[in-house]
From TrEMBL:
Residues 136-207 form the Sushi domain. GO terms for biological process: proteolysis. This is Uncharacterized protein. SUPFAM superfamilies: Complement control module/SCR domain, LDL receptor-like module, Trypsin-like serine proteases. InterPro entries: LDL_receptor-like_sf, LDLR_class-A_CS, LDrepeatLR_classA_rpt, Peptidase_S1_PA, Peptidase_S1_PA_chymotrypsin, Sushi/SCR/CCP_sf, Sushi_SCR_CCP_dom, Trypsin_dom.
Length: 486
């Protein structure tokens, strides 16, 4: 009852204060400790500023509860509905209205400190929601740029979902990776969250440098903080790669510089070339007259086979000049009536000492079909005296260089040719040629060493019938006694 009387008084007083712009209380003019005090409207007594509009009158004249944005008791008394009055009397923007009408800064809402005298700022259902969102559960973050993540045991996980605890496995797009502890470019990193607490930062996907596996080079990786490791196919920025040629098959002309991955791009590339024309060390000196070849004596020797039609017959030899190119003679792939035969009829084997295609003794052999045979347009077999008798075979399966399989050097420099093709210089010839006139071909590879013969000597010593074949694109080698000629 007493309360009702009081409210009526304050209502009446409020009308007379309507033109007063402030709350009807003036500053007490002093601070006391950490809080500010102001004087009540009637000049009697000082109250803490925080008690203004807190729903409970503190001044003797209750002036501290006047002109408050919302005053439930007062509004009820004047027959206004709670909800209606709430709509009519609102807090300025940036403020939140306590249930009792008092306005507090929105920042103080749900800050775990009671700011409204009725505690409504902390009891609000809003706070319960927010508390869950900020401390109770793990809300899945957006996917990283250039990547995505999986959530362990939650196959349909999506950003924005809330779970009590999660293990995220971040995966970056191809070419990107996570700069993780190991810097190993695995591109995978895990992030844990338990009851709303994230234990790692969400990783970023950064551009990595690609390091294609290459049989010619070995790479070692130095990553800051990790030390030296074998490199993976994708290398994180900042990694320094030390390249080394896979000797003795591959070599570099100059000392290889270290490669550095800078923002996904290599500052330079190391290149190793295959060592061409090098006989594998350990082979014995060759003897004139032909001897059985040893593995690696002529590592570029390619045996050419024709399907006839089922079994492979060795018909010619060639030289490996790159891992998928063999140079041979056009007449091996030619029939005067049919002209060039289809590539599918031929096969090539390298690393072989034994003639038969399937010889089990040739452990190091590699074989390939022929994709394409290229010959000169001018080539016309016997009709043109075997002029331009050269063929380039493109293989379907590139050979893998080994100690016993390497290419011969190819050099188009005319000076080099003049230097090589002079009296006294020997060349090597390998094959399963005839061991004696009309005899069967040898079953194991033979190697011959033959001297160059200059054209004048060659033509003057050859029987007339052969002279026509010494066209400008050929040279002679062998012995003028007629034993071995080409
Ligand atoms: C205010 O409105 C809500 C729903 O809109 C209603 O449940 C409540 O009873 C209302 N309160 C008053 C005092 O009218
Ligand atoms: C070269 O090695 C690759 C990979 O081991 C293999 O697939 C391929 O058949 C090899 N080439 C030949 C001609 O044997």
């Amino acid at each position: 009852m007493c309360m009702c009387v009081f409210i009526l008084i304050s209502l009446a007083t409020s009308l007379s204060f309507a033109s007063v712009p402030d709350n009807g209380v003036s500053d007490c003019g002093h601070r006391n400790g950490n809080y500010e005090e102001i004087k009540c409207r009637n000049g009697i007594g000082c109250i803490r500023t925080e008690h203004i509009c807190d729903g409970t009158p503190d001044c003797p004249d209750a002036s501290d509860e006047l002109l408050c944005p919302f005053h439930p008791e007062r509004d009820l008394q004047s027959n206004l509905g709670w909800n209606r009055s709430r709509r009519q009397l609102t807090c300025p923007s940036g403020q939140w209205q306590c249930k009792n009408g008092y306005c507090i800064s929105k920042n103080r809402l749900c800050d775990q400190v009671s700011d409204c005298s009725d505690n409504s700022d902390e009891a609000s259902p809003l706070c319960r929601k927010r508390a869950i969102a900020t401390s109770g559960v793990c809300v899945l973050p957006p996917y990283p740029e250039q990547g995505t993540y999986d959530v362990e045991d939650i196959p349909d996980a999506r950003p924005g979902q809330a779970h009590s605890s999660v293990v995220l496995t971040v995966r970056c797009r191809r070419g990107y990776g996570v700069m993780d502890l190991y810097g190993d470019g695995s591109g995978i990193q895990q992030v844990y969250c338990v009851n709303g607490k994230w234990y790692q930062n969400m990783p970023k996907c950064v551009r990595f440098c690609k390091l294609d596996p290459d049989p010619s080079i070995r790479y070692m990786c130095y990553t800051p903080g990790t030390g030296i490791t074998f490199c993976r196919n994708y290398v994180s920025p900042g990694t320094v790669v030390e390249p080394a040629c896979n000797s003795p098959i591959y070599y570099a002309k100059e000392v290889l510089r270290n490669m550095k991955c800078i923002s996904g791009v290599w500052d330079n590339y190391a290149e190793c070339k295959v060592e061409c024309g090098r006989i594998t060390p350990g082979g014995q000196p060759l003897l004139i007259g032909g001897k059985e070849a040893k593995h690696g004596e002529l590592p570029w020797h390619a045996a050419i086979y024709r399907r006839a039609p089922e079994v492979f017959m060795q018909i010619c030899s060639g030289s490996l000049v790159s891992n998928n190119v063999v140079i041979s003679a056009a007449h091996c792939f030619w029939k005067d009536l049919i002209k060039l035969l289809p590539a599918s009829q031929f096969g090539v084997a390298v690393g072989k000492l034994h003639r038969s295609w399937n010889s089990e003794e040739d452990f190091f052999a590699q074989k390939s079909n022929v994709n394409e045979i290229r010959i000169e347009k001018l080539y016309d077999g016997v009709a043109a005296n075997f002029q331009e008798d050269i063929a380039v075979l493109i293989l379907s399966t590139p050979f893998n260089y080994t100690t016993y399989i390497r290419p011969v050097c190819l050099d188009f420099n005319l000076n080099f040719e003049n230097f090589q093709l002079q009296d006294g210089v020997y060349g090597k010839l390998a094959g399963w040629g005839l061991t004696s006139p009309n005899g069967p071909p040898s079953e194991s590879l033979k190697v011959l060493s033959l001297p160059f013969i200059n054209e004048d000597t060659c033509i003057s010593t050859l029987p007339d019938a052969f002279r026509g074949y010494i066209t400008g694109d050929k040279f002679c080698a062998g012995y003028t006694n007629g034993k071995c000629q080409e």
